Amino acid sequence: MDYKEEYLRCKKDPIYFISKYIKVVHPIRGMVPFKLYPFQKVILNALETERFNILRKFRQAGCTTIAAAYSVWKCLFNSHQTIVILSVGDTESTEVLDRIKIMYDETPEWMRPKATQINAHNLKLENNSHIKSRPSGKQSGRGLSGSLLIIDEAAFIEHIDTIWAAVYPIISTGGRAFVLSTVNGIGNWYHQIWEGAVEGTNSFNPIQINWKDHPEYNRVDGFDWLYKEMEQRDPPMNIDEWEKTTRANLSHKKWLQEYECEFLGTGDTFIEGQVLNSLLENISEDFYRLYNNRMYVWKDPDPTTSYFIAADVALGRERDYSAFQVVDLQTGEQVAEFYSNTTPINEFARILFDQGNRYNLAPILIERNTIGNNLIDYLWEQLEYDNVWFDEKGLPGFQTTTKTRDQVLIEMEEALRTSEVKLNSKRTVMELNTFIISDNGRFQADTGQNDDLVMSLALSIYGARRYREENPGIVMNKTFREQKPLSPLKSYSFGEGRNEDITWLMRD
């Protein structure tokens, strides 16, 4: 072997080095070469090309091992590197360094610099490169200076926002960061950083991997040797049965969190998880914006169609949000949506007035609790909008009580589950993902989340149903039935016939 040529190749190509020289302890096969799977190579390429990476991973994906192997490569072939690995606790941090020490010990002597310090939390080499593995703590960030910071299972680390705020100034001038985790609820630092990475509002590169890409969980071309080996284990493992067996041993919520990497609320979601997944698959990004991005419009008004609007109002002082939904009464499709926490009530009323007239003088249902009465008064009395919705008592708006709130929400759940409505808005669906059943059985937004889009949607469904009952000429024809089915749930049949829209005959 030409050692110099081999050394230079390993220094240049971390994938080549790790695949050939790194060994790991497999839970079944013992000490084995680290045979990289395709999705793991994607991660390594991202670590080389991007300064800041955030990984959303499924359970037991081997990503911590990838981070450890990359750290070894970085320090073996580069001097004066300081890599800090932050873990949830001391047990986890020592386990990571144990893996690193095994990897280091198993590499050829001619390749590796000598170690000058080895203990439970440090591996320091004579080329002045240093790997530190540390448990997290509120003050951890104060001592985490380094060229590369790796935060393992970031969603489970307490005070991670404080730690990040302390360490960021150190790495901001040239250092790198790799944040990896399985998901752990919503609203936390990891969730916020991930969402910002996806939206492009921060510097992180998002890396999404799927369990179906893992050859040990799903059949992938080129790994027949692995499947033969799995079948020879005691007990034998059938790759084609892995998903079925695993799902049977987990709750649906645990499956979504651990393997589908879904950001879920702390309680059970009010809408069943599979329905939420199907709603998300059927959203539409084909919209334009009005009122400085506060309103999304998917479909302009059709003069031959009737619409319904429902509104949930807030003060407009950056607390709760004012929201309204516009739905097509013939199809149940969401055609427009407004959402803002900075819009004063009078301005909100004018927007409702304009959009109500624009959508063919649509009936407007407003929750009349507290400040809702002010909105109704301004819209009805001051702006003289002619089609404010009245309840069965002849009062304008909708009075929300514990009983009526539960009723409209239950009707919303049924309408979403049976495809009575078609949602286009991702932000509405994401709010549904954080609308939960609390420990005391209350239907509510999860801690730190909002429910204004959910409530305006529920009111629009409730009001639209009753408006159709009072106006039999308005018939639902469900023209959006071509959307993806609520798989794997049972499909609901509404009959094969289609009703001809004859409402134009009834117009003045």
Structural features, described:
- The strands form four sheets. Strands 5-6-7-4-8-9-3-10 form an eight-stranded mixed sheet, sandwiched between helices. A six-stranded mixed sheet has the order 12-13-16-15-14-17.
- The protein is elongated and about 90 Å long.
- Helices cover 37% and strands 17% of the residues.
- Strand 1 (23-26) and strand 2 (30-33) form a beta hairpin.
- It has helices at 3-12, 14-21, 38-49, 63-77, 90-106, 160-171, 189-199, 224-231, 242-248, 252-258, 273-281, 345-358, 372-382, 402-417, 426-433, 452-470, 503-506, and strands at residues 23-26, 30-33, 52-56, 82-87, 115-118, 122-125, 130-135, 148-152, 176-181, 205-208, 268-269, 288-290, 295-297, 307-312, 322-328, 334-340, 364-366, 435-437, 443-445.
- The relative contact order is 0.09.
- It is α/β, with parallel strands linked by helices.
Largest sheet: 8 strands, mixed
Shape descriptor: elongated
Number of strands: 19
- The class by helix and strand makeup works out as alpha/beta
As a percent range, the share of strand residues is: 15-25%
State the low-pLDDT regions, or none: 481-508
Rounded radius of gyration (Å): 28 Å
Task: Classify the helix fraction into a percent range.
Answer: 25-40%
Task: Kindly report how far apart the N and C termini lie.
Answer: 91 Å
Number of helices: 17
State the strand order across the main sheet: 5-6-7-4-8-9-3-10
Mean pLDDT: 87
Assembly of the depicted chains: single chain
